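Sequence in, structure out. Go.
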Amino acid sequence: MILGIETSCDETAASVVRNGTEIVSNVVASQIESHKRFGGVVPEIASRHHVEQMTIVVEEALEKADVTMDEIDAIAVTEGPGLVGALIIGVNAAKAMAFAHQKPLIGVHHIAGHIYANRLIEEMKFPLLSLVVSGGHTELVLMKEHGSFEVIGETRDDAAGEAYDKVARTLGLPYPGGPHIDRLAHEGTPSVKLPRAWLEEGSYDFSFSGLKSAVINTLHNAEQRGEEIDVKDLAASFQESVVEVLTEKAKRAVEEYDVKQLLLAGGVAANKGLRTRLTEMFETSDVELVIPPLSLCTDNAAMIAAAGTVMYEQGKRSTLAMNANPGLML
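Output:
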């Protein structure tokens, strides 16, 4: 029975997970309303909210799970990557509880958590490939066994989620922009010609900054010519470009590495266009496609507890000297 704590960005979350596969409770306090007027996450405000919410969220998670700290076997917490001020709150709360209750402490990588969110709905079958798509990360991760991560492709500039937010801001859409572009994309047609960054042959890396710039230039050029561009069509064209590159590279990697499963992970895994394209692509494939429910795509603590369970079973422990590590490598 693992207590998970997650505070890497703007969600204060705590969860109790049994055996790494069963969610007993999962509590998330979102800060979206506070950051909306700034058009993005303000680190200092995020940290203050974590301080206010931490104890409440942990108590609620234990209460909903109907367990006491005596029944908890270990405490798993996001060690990094993320906003350093936000991470510090979760790490120190976990350290204080581990010390007070004499429980093992486990520092978890945030992206490992996103990948292991899939284990809460479907057992992992190795070797597998995970397509991680979030605000700060776009990666293809190969796993040959539990706890082993090989990054075979990553973003060279803007992550997909970051590009979504920047394009949304240019289009005058509220924060967070991803869901708004996804909604508009389904109402428009991809009629605006935009680039796809395939990079050099055989590369599984990603690049979305050129696409983001192309959208911004398309808007500015139309403005200067006094033309009106249909925002829905532009959103559809942008999404089409992102989804095509993500899914084609994932499909190619699945074939090259001969994996049994493809897992979708991260906040952008909630994107309807991406989920639909992958589902269609792997409908007749022997490779099993696992897509988590929306509640497990965005940041939550159940995924941290799930990843922490594997580390606990492998005998991995952190000491009370653990600190927040915003640049933690997978």
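Check: The two ends are 24 Å apart (CA to CA). The chain is about 40% helix and 20% strand.
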